[in-house]
Amino acid sequence: MFCCLLFCSFSHLQAQYSVSPNDDSDIEWREIKTDRFHIVYPNFYEANAQRIAVVLDTLYPYIGSSLGTDAPNIPFLIHTNSSKSNGLTVWAPKRIELWTTPSPTSFAYPWSWHLAIHEYRHACQMQALNKGISGVLNNIFGEHILGAVSGLLIPMWFMEGDAVVAETALTPSGRGATPDFKMQMKAHLLEQGAFNYDKAILGSRMSFVPDEYVLGYYMCAYSRNIYGKDIFADITESTARNWWSLNWFSRADIRGIKYDESRIYSNLTDSLANLWGHEDNLWLASTDKSCLDIIQIRKDYYTNYLNPVKTGKDSIIALKSSYFDLQSLVLIHNGKEEKLRSLPFLKHSFFDYHNGKILYSQEAMNQRWGQQNYSDIVEYDIKSRKYRMISSKGIFFNPVYNPVDPTLIAAIETDNRDNQSLVVLNTGGRFEKTKNILRKNRNIYIRSVSNQHATTLSYPTWSEDGRFIFVIETNEKGKLISRYNIYTMEREVILQTGYDNISHLKQKQGKLFFIKDMDSKYEIVCIDLDTRNTMQLSETQFGVGDFHITDSTRMIVCPYSSMGYYLAETDCNPKPVNLFQRNREAVFVDLIREEENFILNDQTLNFDSMKYESRPYEKIAHLFNFHSWAPIYMNISKMDFGVGASVFSQNLLSTSVLELGYKYNFNDTKNELYMNYTYSGLYPIIQLEANYKTRWLTFDTGPADLYAKWNELMMGFDISLPYSWNTQQSVNSVKLRMNYSVRKLIPKELYSPGEEIKILDIFNTMGIGLNVSSLSATAYNDLAPRFGFNAMIAYKSTLTENPAEYFAAKVTTYLPAFTKNQSFELALTYQTNSPNKYYFPTEINFTKGIHNLSPKEFYGFGITFHTPLSYPDWKLGRVLYVKRVIARPFYEFGSFDQKTFQSFGSDISFNMHILRIHTPLETGFRIGYLTERNTLFFNLLFSLDL
After folding, report:
1. How many CA atoms lie within 13 A of 49 on its CB side?
2. What H or E segment, with its residue span, contains residue 470?
3. Is 898 in contact with 859 (CB distance < 8 Å)?
4. Do both 222 and 78 map to the same domain?
5. Residues 22, 7: contact at Cβ < 8 Å?
6. For residue 848, which of 832, 823, 818, 825 has the smallest C-alpha distance?
7. What pTM did the predictor assign?
8. How many domains is the chain partitioned into structurally?
9. What pLDDT score was predicted for residue 796?
10. Which residues of the chain carry a pLDDT beneath 70?
């Protein structure tokens, strides 16, 4: 049963054995270690690490209580050199990683606190599974057991939904309390009705389906409402102890009650549809829908239009995004749409516009360190189609032009301690040549006009006279709007909105406009800066996502629907409203907060009285962490599985990864022992490899085939120097490789009727290689890049008197095809080898349908057409759910020592989920025809869609 569990959870392996990108090798690390948690962080992050420690310590008695477990002692790894804002919990090896840079789109609560609650709850979910037979197997075979149990038996909607319930119940904010979740579910249920359960939990590549966070929150909160707050403590314990008897999460029998998740889903959607249907009827009775002049644009599928700007009498530019296209800047004129430019790396779906130019922040890669990236300010001239980099290797969000002097730019700058500043940038340096200059970036002078370091900032906007900047500030008391004088740095609080979410500030005509949570719906409101009167300007069905004030009476809005955000024009119809009054809580929020009976806020946290001992974190002392082992062969680096045994080690920083294993092949009594070790904590990536295995070769000599079989012991190392970067449209990389090995060959069988083959005894090899690629960014439904190339060249040789040599070269080019998500792939390959001396393992693919040939010289050509066939969202009970059908017709030509072969055919694959496991598979078959041999060939295909 154990082996069956591991094989069935194959689709979850990528999440299991998660090797994260690396931090800069120059970072010196420190650690705070207690009997409850372990925090590892850069040495310059000490003050914030102490605050996170206080948060974790305060949370400890509460974070796992409704799951019937204490929080596990788990390491937290803090990444601070990134524009990324996210969290990750994995269990092989177990760790929590936090990217603590605050995002301008975060809610009315400190970002690092929100992250800590959500990810700490994930750790409690895993700990709740560490009981019974699962706990025993975890102690025997290591940490991947719990990951296998969760991946196979626990639905993802519970994992994420329960964590959202925790962040909502334990804080005065949380995503469950915001309109973001409600608008998606409400629009979906009222306009389209509930999907079948499989589609609801597994999603679609054609239709928009509220994800596991949204659906999961409502499923978990509703279940607690029906069965009590301990329902999931009982279900996870039952699953952990009894999964071997098929008593799984979806079949749990608790307190004499069978928890049927599909029935819960049906009851939930009926309940929410009734509740929100009543709300909708009241809205229809009190609102004139005809006041929205919808800008008619053809939408065949779910598409979002955001960030509208009116650029002419009948012209609007906006950001468009969908599953089928890259995020793009589009021009809409008289109902017709023109694509201006793809913006795949645009941050936070935000840009500013002035006089034919747009200004935005764009994600930029570090050349080597995956955990270090930037958010650069870019200006794009729509007319000339030229870019200008404003900043380089900084982290800037939400840049906006000064309306009087567009050479002045306001933006939010973040440093590696998570301190955020409101800054003014200027190319001329006139304004910033004072003692307040922070630094110079490229040719840009930067001056800070704020010093609220305990505050995070978002959505700055200039006053009409260009002398003031308005900005949203977030701290432990929620959100507020401040105004800064850029010359005196004086700060004035305009409005405090507490824990109600606000965003998208715009100032015009003496008023400050923004989006605010108004009774669980985002609407446009404003405050008169002279009288301080507050008004609500919109009353939409499901809420708005963005807007643009055109004049004193009209505005362009982006209302939400089940087909995405759309564009409409409407009158500004102000009605007085009290923005200081706290909203009613969304459905289920009061219930789950009452059940938890604890709120993490400035009243329950005591930063002043708690101090934790910290010490340097020694990287060398923590190189090895043996976390998992199994009585099956699992070569994770090569995604190869079989009969045997495996052992895994990975350190917390993901710089030291070791795999040991043994594999046995019944078909040809082939044994293999292997060791792979990778160290990536320096700029060069060093890989050590040792293996002992059986090899053979067959090649055509004319009158008869030659055949040899031998055991081979190999020990070697590979050193690579990677360099990566992205442009406006593409991701690029160059990698130089050098390898060296020692090999010993032990002959087993030798059959050579035509000539003798000399098998070397013990010898050394050396090789070099170069990989270069430039690939266009891909949309969600793209099967391959639409533009770009991959190129590789490799040379190896034995260091012997009469050397065996190997040379390979391959160039793959991608070109757009006929419609969206289609592309052509063209490949040219060439290889020479030395089968009479030593046959190096090939680094290129031969012509499809050809096997067991070992040519001295090969060259080939291939063309593949990548195209989706359909998006059926078809299910077969609870066993199978198919999202997409794909075809890859191909033609290939190859010359094997002057003997040519041609093959043609097609791969047909299905993007699917099996047994409702969340990670999709891509499974199918290849059928082809070899013209020279007049034979058909058939292969089964399998991969993970990650």
Report:
1. 26
2. strand 468-475
3. no
4. yes
5. no
6. 825
7. 0.94
8. 4
9. 98
10. 1-17, 245-247, 428-443, 452-453, 635-639, 666-670, 698-707, 750-760, 945-946
